[in-house]
Amino acid sequence: KEVIEGFFRENFNKAVNIIVPEKGVKKRLSEMAEKNAKDYLEKTVQKIEHKEDMTTVACERLQKILSLSRYPRRMECYDISNVSGVDKVASMVVFTDGEKDAKEYRRFMIKTVEGANDFASLKEALTRRLSKLGTDEEEKFPKPDLIIIDGGKGQLSSVKEVFDEMGVTDIDLISLAKREEEIFTVHSLEPVVLPHSDYVLRLMQRIRDEAHRFAITYFRSLHNKRNIASALDEIPGIGKKYKKLLLEAFGSVENMAHAEKQDFLKVEGFGEKRAQTLYNFFHGNKDEQTKDETDESEE
Fold first, then answer.
1. Structural domain span for residue 278
2. pLDDT tens, position by position, 206-217
3. 12 and 157 both lie in a single domain
């Protein structure tokens, strides 16, 4: 009481008299406030301790359980996403001290692999990633302490080949298989299986699931753009330039299908004929589409 009164006098130049109720309703309210404050403090401490268990403590245990060569401060996880080998994408997500570090995320469009081949796609992505070590690009792509692969023994072996070919020996490498949540390392033929409640496994799952989410999000974006382009290819007079303008204006083919003619007229470069052509296309009047209209300013 005296300390609080003194605080107000010294900092606000005001005399404050704090009264502590000893009976009645005010005493019960005071006791309730004290209990609420203690409960809040206890929950806050538990929350902080839980966060530490799920991040830095889990990282320390991960190093110990898997006999990693160093504390995994920067962890990178890779996942491949594609459908029937189209729009192949490798995602790279980064966790620092057990927490998401979204500004460090990267994506790799797979360029050299034909068809759906996750092993080869991983090899390409990791080759491109590791080639940045020891170059001017390492500031943008700092060296990881641990690389995690979404997959089992086969995916791990593919990436280990890249490590061997490039002479990488100072980065730990593991994989996490989805079906049984088995953790594979390059030093043992037998997987490490942890209880589902273990903070280490839960950290690994969070990292793996984030890599999968990041890859799928980008893949869907590419797939949607491809579908939009395919749909617009059928419309006379709509070349690359106008496809781009339509995508920027409407965002999706579905939105275009619900647009009115005057909505198309608002798009830069769209006159009466082109707007009518689009409206007719999306509303089933294809016989009325203008046949002689061409886009002479494609980019």
1. 234-288
2. 999 999 888 887
3. no
